[in-house]
Write a structure and sequence with these properties.
alpha/beta; seven-stranded mixed β-sheet; four-stranded antiparallel β-sheet; globular
Length: 370
């Protein structure tokens, strides 16, 4: 990394996972979230010197000091995810995006627009309302003088969790040398192609190197067997009984292997019935916020001809998001799971910082010093 320390605003900050991903070469100027549990976790880990708790619509540009190099926004995704109502950006939660954007416009009016804006959300943003929500974000960025492009990144490239997200990166800096061939992601290509010509003209095909191979699987992030609470045999049988044919076959294959096999199980509504869906591919399913128990993820262990089950712990969920064990989680398991399920994956942010943000800003720093 050249230049630095770089500065950032962190909107919808949650427990500060974007801050962790950016790393020590970055200085936080402002962080915001309205959720009291999340801001308590943020304070426990980072202090509250730059933390503003409250609705983003209630924040003022005067609350944001200086001119940040980066504004990171992981706006609420419930109205855009497949698990939600797909109300789009005008849904009650995701419309918080426009509160964030109002602040960006106000900063631009003061000649303090961030040099880079990064918007992270569920991949449903690509297609929500037939692509109109994605177009609305791109139009807002273009109207503020930014060029932009989108990436679809799966946490499974870095951690044993299947979690695909959309990241839009917009910049006022020269992106030359950081672009590549069009994205291999079908969702990105189709979203870009749906844009009207004036917006496509401002598109950047951001280049990211192929992710490194990793040897970490789900079993590696789990607590020791004797440190967790296992469910009863009757409860495990009831969970297995909820599986359809495909998922029972997966469990039977795991048992037949003669080895210890660790899997993850979600309960989902399928055709009006609650079903248990298992995977034994070394990955957890995408973490969600716990609600009514149905979105809690289970761990299934097939070993020595027997099956045991238990709930995923909050610390295990934190590891699946890339949080270190030194990270202070809320005391409540449900609160810890909520924090993780609503967060951004730490190594994904680090990758974006190393391959896009820091090269862009380092170039600017060098130019300003010349």
């Amino acid at each position: 990394m050249s230049g630095g320390p770089f500065t950032f605003y962190e909107f919808f900050a949650g427990g500060g996972m974007a801050r962790l991903g950016l790393g020590a070469g970055w200085e936080c100027l402002f962080a915001n979230d309205f959720d009291a549990m999340k801001t308590a976790a943020y304070r426990a880990n980072f202090g509250d010197g730059h933390l503003h708790e409250g609705d983003v619509w209630q924040a003022s540009p005067h609350d944001l000091p200086g001119r940040a190099d980066l504004a990171w926004a992981s706006s609420p995704c419930q109205d855009l995810s497949l698990a939600g109502g797909r109300a789009g950006l005008m849904g009650g939660r995701s419309s918080a995006f426009f509160g964030f954007w109002w602040l960006m416009q106000a900063l631009a009016g003061q000649d303090r627009a961030p040099r880079i804006v990064a918007i992270e959300n569920v991949s449903g943003l690509f297609t929500s309302h037939g692509g109109r929500d994605f177009e609305a974000v791109c139009a807002a960025l273009a109207g503020a003088g930014y060029r932009f492009g989108a990436l679809e990144i799966d946490a499974a490239d870095y951690l044993p969790q299947s979690r695909t997200r959309c990241v839009i990166v917009a910049t006022q800096e020269d992106p030359s040398g950081l672009t590549g061939p069009p994205s291999r992601s079908r969702a990105v290509r189709e979203a870009r192609d749906r844009l009207p010509a004036p917006l496509r003209a401002r598109w950047i095909d951001w280049r990211l190197a192929a992710p490194p191979r990793h040897n970490l699987d789900l079993a590696a992030v789990l607590e020791p067997d004797d440190a967790v609470a296992w469910r009863s045999e009757a409860e495990t049988r009831a969970l297995v009984a909820m599986m359809g044919e495909l998922h029972r076959q997966r469990l039977e294959a795991a048992l037949a292997s003669g080895e210890r096999r660790v899997g993850a199980v979600f309960r989902r509504m399928r055709g009006g019935e609650q079903r248990a869906e298992a995977r034994f591919d070394g990955l957890a399913g995408c973490l969600r916020t716990p609600g009514g128990g149905s979105s809690r993820q289970f761990i299934l262990v097939a070993e020595a001809g027997k099956v045991r089950s238990r709930l995923l712990t909050a610390r295990e969920a934190a590891r699946l998001m890339g949080l270190p064990d030194s990270y202070v989680l809320p005391a409540s398991a449900n609160a810890g799971l909520h924090l993780a399920g609503d967060g951004v994956v730490v190594p994904v942010v680090r990758r974006l910082a190393a391959e896009i943000f820091e090269p862009l800003l380092g170039r600017h720093s060098a130019s300003a010093a010349a």
